[in-house]
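so my prof wants the structure for this chain in the tokens format not the other one, which i didnt know existed until like an hour ago. anyway here's the sequence
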Amino acid sequence: MKISTVSVAILSGKGGVGKSNIALNLCYALNKANHSVLLMDCDMGLANMDVLLGIAPQYHIQDILLEDRDPEDIIVNISPGPSGGRGFDLLPANSGMSDFADLDNGARDILRERINPLAAEYDFLFLDIGAGISPTALEFGAMAGMRLVIVTPEPTSLTDSYALMKVMAARYQIEDFFIVVNQAESPAEGKQTYNRLTAVCQRFLGFAPKYLGHIRLDRAMSDAVCRQKPLLQINPQAPAALDCTSIAAALRRLRMDCLAAPEALRKSQSFG
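here's what i got, hopefully its the right format
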């Protein structure tokens, strides 16, 4: 993978917190800021990135394993890059395939070996990972260099997100997580939600995740889902769109920090 590639896992303890929609809009924002981005739908059992975009891909990630497809044949271009270079591309997955809901180590190794050369051509590799603590979700989360945990102010979301970080810390000795609070009524509620989660992590896990930002509760976001378009494409001035843009800017700064710190970059530049 090229020296400037950074991999980002999008995680959540429970479903329904807007994880995939946030991943989509962050990728779109980064692409509009002239970054090349590859988004990989890693929810092999219940993929929905194609639904969010209103597309019907001919091939899916599972075809790498089923038919030995080249990942280059599977990617779907969502938004072009400058001067004909890489832009914002998607590696879609197929939904409703129960045999792929949890991949064994051999299947994950094959995907990693086949996808890494393609991912090397992008500034960012985003992994939209299924919610919860399944073995596949945990393995994909551990592979990335950065982990964004999406939470909402609901107690169930906070409880499940804490459980996710607890399991990853115990199994992989991972303690570096970034928190994004979705569906916050205000910036103050976003920070309060983060503070509640961090207090529990510090007390029982011995580390504090970092706060990356909040995304306001915004009807425009659900409208964009119904229209099957990224919010940033159809309503870039909506409050939630502006919040996504701010978080994308924070990711750009983190990437620059990685470029300035070779050891940190090596950790963040590989899908496995």
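also thought this was worth mentioning. The mean pLDDT is 91.
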